[in-house]
Amino acid sequence: MMLPSSLWHCWIALALVGLSGIPPVSAQSQSALNAQLTEAVNQQNWSRAIAIVDGMIEKTTDSEAKAKLTRYRASLRQCQQGQCAGATAPTPTAPPGSITPPPAAPVVAQAPPPASANSLVSAQQKLKAGDLLGAIDEFSAALQTNPELVAAYTGRGLAYYRLADFQAASQDFSAALERDPNNAKLYQQRGVTFFKLNDLTRALEDLNQAIGRDPKQAVPYYNRSLIYAEVGRYEDARQDSEQALQLDPKLAVAYQTYGIANYRLGQVNVAIQALDQAIKLDPQLASALQNRGYIRVKQGEWPDALDDLKAAAALYVQQNQPDLYQQVQKQIDTFAQMDVLETSPSPTVSP
């Protein structure tokens, strides 16, 4: 018979100690109580089982028996949260006068074996420390032990994303979604990965799913605004970036997209103000300086434009982005008039 191991230890203890602190009850009432508890556990009606044990605790005067019942109630609450671990054990028996523990509850969820749990912790530490290849190895080891670990697929997907292996990242996020199909953050992460793969249709579908499941998060709106800007839907981009800012007024990159969209809609002053705010919130946001410089070039504000482009180039050097540095430096050298704003900020993937 399968019995959650945490409940098994409590029931054994109850059987050995006995509940002498509970006021005497008739055989009929004790039998009815046992039957109710047994039925509740077998039906996985954890709320009802907890309520029955609460009643036992109230009637118990023996401190040791009360402690055992309290631990048993904690185990029931673990099951209520889907955290029972399976174990094989015989049904314990109780001496006369004690309450017979209910039969084994069905297994609700298998906890990860120690090996996979250890690998998962190690992988998450390496991911946080920036050891991306080491993190991938550890996440893979965890999945070999337990191939159902959503956190391992998600973490390995993030590591692949940061290594710019977007195909592998999308596969891991898809595997995670197969096991956790209502996770809004996973849809957001896979949507951003599809964006990087230039699969804008699937990216938009996933971001729609993320927003539909959790409309109170700013980042998916921002990421969707990038797609809209990419395909020329500037009014939609403006609305999404505005919604992102309502949810998170300190999201600097959303101010940038808001500025780009407004510029394309002919609202130049609004665009400059939005980019000013983006730079104020995040002085290291080189792309905002770059875009403000481009607008100033178009407006004929040459000294200010040159200052912005030089500042952006210096930041790209500091941030080890040589391609973007070369792009801006070429602009500075030739002072070329740009027809297309750079929507260079990357979509955001939340760890």
Topology:
Layout: H1 5-17, H2 27-42, H3 46-59, H4 63-80, H5 114-129, H6 132-145, H7 150-162, H8 166-179, H9 184-196, H10 200-213, H11 218-230, H12 234-247, H13 252-264, H14 268-281, H15 286-298, H16 302-318, H17 322-334
Explain how this protein is built.
With 351 residues, this protein is an all-alpha fold. Helices cover 69% and strands 0% of the residues. It contains 17 helices and no strands. It has helices at residues 5-17, 27-42, 46-59, 63-80, 114-129, 132-145, 150-162, 166-179, 184-196, 200-213, 218-230, 234-247, 252-264, 268-281, 286-298, 302-318, 322-334. Helix 15 runs antiparallel to helix 16 (302-318). The longest helix is centred in the N-terminal third of the chain and has 18 residues, at 63-80. The chain is elongated, with a radius of gyration of 30 Å. The chain starts with a helix and ends in a 17-residue tail after the last helix. Residues 1-28, 85-113 and 338-344 have low confidence and may be disordered.
Gist?
Helix content is 69%, strand content 0%. The protein has helices spanning 5-17, 27-42, 46-59, 63-80, 114-129, 132-145, 150-162, 166-179, 184-196, 200-213, 218-230, 234-247, 252-264, 268-281, 286-298, 302-318, 322-334.
